[in-house]
């Protein structure tokens, strides 16, 4: 047989039954020696031996899009895995893939035996075959960092790079040190081009406040060799499954159960304690970053690791679940995020159970269980039932009262422990008032129970890892606020939102009083109007005037907040504007349908309030375009503002009456033109104002979705279309009335009367 006929002897490639979906989709080889990431994570042998497929049956699951890849059996001489074993020293990779493999650790004798002349010729850190295709591929295994000489490319050595904590400072390691800030995901601009990734001097320490990807810091000295900075204690072993923090070693079996690699879990933990962009489900910083982010010492066993805070497994998994929801990470692709979120929730429910709401039942638990309940209050609405949040809140408050964390601990404990107790109790207080107004529930925490507890310290001090001892309100900080105050605001949740929550608590009491005055049964079907409110008696008027005084005190102190944070000032201004609107209207906030059915509403007054809303929303969307700072809290006040906007759009036919006078025919053409121009200006102003509010609703929905925001957004857009038809289509008034009644019927679902659930549907 001629050599040209050798292809006739080639065996026909056939599909085997033991092939994973990941390899089948990529049309690539996966065997026992070089398994793909999918088979490694699920610990499954894969024998799909076909390297490439040109034709085949296409389907929705396996699209007909074969990818041409280089045969892995034909390796170049420049491949990093062709190096001799005696010349390789394993190092911690700069970017770790989602594949966990056992690395062989060798003694770095060759590096220390290098001569001075050899070390002077080393000019940078190089990657081999580092392309964008490698970065996108999930199976790409990062090579060890090597140092190459431009004069002799064949002489290459692998050196160790000392990993450092994300909160290291140059003062801790000496002067003249430069930190390079890189991001782990494959779309990092610093890693696309190997020319710039090789030279450390091109990129000096830079932090992007809008990016929320977990960083990796590399340390080197300017104009010096990297060999001088080798630290033998920083060799990364794979015995801990890639875990970088001691805290995660306690839940390592659970991480393996949910198929979460250790390096990804470390990234998630870093994202939770990020100072710039925190998870959207995290309402406050109860736990301190310095205490929890303790690096693993790779040369020690798990029992010999540095001592960290004794944290419960449920709390650690809850921290990871909170950050998994919206972290931007290459591992969280497709359905992985949803599956991981659900598995973690199931494990947490098995570790901490919801007890009965019976006040006489004895409840046991620790302080970590209270913090876990605080997180689950914010996570529960994502699972489809917002009412579960109140059950977690009641359990956390009952346990907090049993452990008496609402009182100052005068025992011999550290100030950090006292600060954790204060932050946990005031977080429960904020969540209680928030759920009171959102879900139409009764209050669980009274102001009397919080009168003897100091307010938490500033977040910038609490999250500063350079501060070892926190300031004590008994010694150093004599100006710390205690109990219920309305005239002191500051940055952060405990700076301004806590004061707003105290106002909301008073509003809840006012609501309960009005509801008792009305005495509306759950079977009542009569529409609620301003005449049936029953809020005109002397007692209710005095109580409302007192609320206005407290709100004015809070509003007068808001300008001082601007010097600390523009974003916090924008959020506080919007919440204050909504609360002012609720207090100044006859129809109160707990019944949106009552506001829409009120025939005595004033169109000009509603327009004035909506203009104030639009200005506050415009300021907020400029300061925080993604609405990432306080999405869990602010979306409720967005809902209340949108109800007023819908009320304005529903009464457009009344507002247009003065522009459509019946005697308009007797007027001259100039007067008719002036009225038409004024009507056009009014419509454009209303439309512009409504679009600004819709933009904020959509931004908040993209960060933290909610069904009631989606409904309220669609209603506003429908009302805007009716406004255009009311102006352009003759005889549209009848259809406008029909559409208005439909919008009222939809809004009536969010009811705050007896047995009403508010927005907790």
UniProtKB/TrEMBL annotation:
GO MF assignments: DNA binding; DNA-binding transcription factor activity, RNA polymerase II-specific; zinc ion binding
Keywords assigned: Activator, DNA-binding, Metal-binding, Nucleus, Transcription, Transcription regulation, Zinc
UniProt-listed GO biological process terms: DNA-templated transcription
Ranges where the Zn(2)-C6 fungal-type domain occurs: 19-48
Region annotation (Disordered) ranges: 54-74
Family per similarity comment: Belongs to the xlnR/xlr1 family.
Protein name: Zn(2)-C6 fungal-type domain-containing protein
Organism annotation: Saccharomycopsis crataegensis
């Amino acid at each position: 047989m001629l050599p040209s006929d050798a292809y006739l002897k080639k065996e026909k490639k056939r599909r085997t039954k033991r092939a994973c979906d990941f390899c089948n989709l990529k049309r690539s080889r996966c065997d026992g020696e070089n398994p793909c990431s999918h088979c490694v994570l699920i610990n499954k042998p894969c024998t799909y031996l076909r390297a490439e497929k040109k034709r085949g049956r296409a389907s929705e699951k396996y699209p007909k899009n074969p990818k041409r890849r280089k045969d892995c059996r034909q390796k170049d001489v420049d491949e990093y895995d062709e190096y001799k074993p005696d010349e390789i020293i394993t190092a911690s990779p700069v970017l770790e893939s989602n594949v966990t493999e056992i690395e062989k650790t060798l003694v770095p004798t060759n590096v220390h035996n290098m001569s001075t002349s050899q070390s002077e010729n080393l000019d940078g850190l190089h990657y081999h075959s580092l392309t964008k295709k490698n970065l996108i591929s999930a199976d790409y295994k990062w090579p060890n960092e090597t140092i190459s000489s431009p004069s002799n490319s064949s002489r290459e050595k692998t050196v160790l790079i000392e990993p450092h904590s994300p909160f290291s400072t140059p003062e801790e390691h000496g002067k003249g040190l430069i930190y390079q800030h890189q991001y782990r995901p494959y779309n990092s601009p610093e890693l696309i081009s190997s020319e710039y990734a090789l030279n450390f001097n091109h990129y000096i320490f830079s932090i992007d406040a809008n990016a929320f990807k977990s960083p990796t810091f590399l340390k080197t000295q300017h104009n010096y060799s990297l060999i001088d900075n080798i630290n033998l204690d920083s060799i990364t072993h794979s015995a801990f499954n890639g875990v970088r923090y001691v805290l995660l070693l306690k839940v390592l079996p659970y991480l393996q159960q949910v198929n979460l690699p250790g390096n990804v879990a470390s990234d998630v933990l870093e994202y939770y304690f990020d100072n710039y962009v925190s998870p959207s489900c995290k309402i406050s910083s109860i736990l301190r970053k310095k205490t929890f982010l303790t690096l693993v010492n790779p040369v020690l066993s798990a029992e010999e690791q540095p001592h960290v805070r004794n944290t419960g497994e449920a709390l650690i998994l809850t921290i990871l679940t909170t950050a998994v929801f919206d972290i931007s990470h290459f591992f969280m692709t497709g359905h992985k995020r949803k599956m991981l979120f659900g598995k973690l929730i199931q494990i947490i429910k098995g570790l901490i159970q919801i007890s009965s709401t019976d006040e006489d039942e004895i409840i046991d638990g620790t302080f970590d269980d209270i913090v876990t309940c605080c997180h689950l209050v914010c996570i529960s609405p994502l699972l489809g039932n917002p009412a579960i949040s109140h059950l977690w809140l009641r359990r956390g408050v009952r346990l907090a009262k049993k452990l008496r964390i609402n009182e100052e601990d005068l025992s011999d404990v550290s100030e950090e422990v006292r600060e954790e107790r204060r932050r946990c109790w005031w977080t429960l207080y904020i969540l209680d008032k928030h759920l009171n107004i959102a879900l139409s529930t009764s209050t669980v925490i009274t102001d009397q129970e919080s009168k003897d507890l100091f307010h938490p310290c500033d977040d910038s001090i609490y999250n500063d890892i350079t501060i070892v001892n926190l300031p004590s309100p008994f010694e150093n900080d004599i100006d710390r606020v205690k109990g219920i105050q309305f005239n002191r605001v500051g940055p952060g949740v405990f700076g301004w939102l806590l004061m707003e929550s105290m106002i909301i608590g008073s509003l809840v009491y006012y609501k309960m009083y009005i509801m008792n005055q009305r005495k509306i049964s759950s079977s009542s079907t009569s529409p609620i109007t301003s005449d049936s409110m029953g809020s005109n008696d002397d007692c209710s008027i005095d109580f409302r005037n007192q609320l206005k005084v407290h709100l004015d005190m809070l509003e007068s102190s808001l300008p001082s907040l601007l010097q600390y944070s523009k974003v916090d000032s924008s959020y506080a201004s919007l919440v204050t504007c909504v609360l002012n609107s609720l207090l100044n209207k006859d129809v109160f906030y707990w019944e949106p349908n009552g506001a829409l059915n009120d025939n005595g509403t004033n169109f000009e007054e509603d327009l004035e309030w909506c203009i104030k809303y639009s200005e506050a929303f415009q300021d907020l969307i400029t300061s925080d375009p993604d609405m990432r700072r306080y999405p869990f809290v602010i979306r409720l006040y967005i809902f209340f503002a949108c109800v007023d906007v819908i009320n304005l759009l529903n009464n457009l036919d009344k507002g247009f009456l003065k522009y459509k006078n019946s005697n308009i025919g007797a007027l001259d053409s100039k007067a008719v033109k002036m009225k038409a121009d004024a009507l056009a200006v009014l419509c454009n102003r209303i439309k512009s104002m409504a679009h600004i509010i819709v933009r904020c609703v959509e931004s908040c929905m993209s960060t933290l979705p909610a069904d009631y925001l989606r409904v309220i957004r669609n209603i506003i857009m429908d009302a805007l279309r009716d406004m255009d038809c009311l102006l352009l289509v003759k005889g549209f008034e009848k259809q406008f009335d029909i559409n208005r009644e439909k919008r009222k019927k939809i809004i009536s679902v969010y009811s705050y009367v007896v047995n009403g659930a508010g927005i907790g549907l």
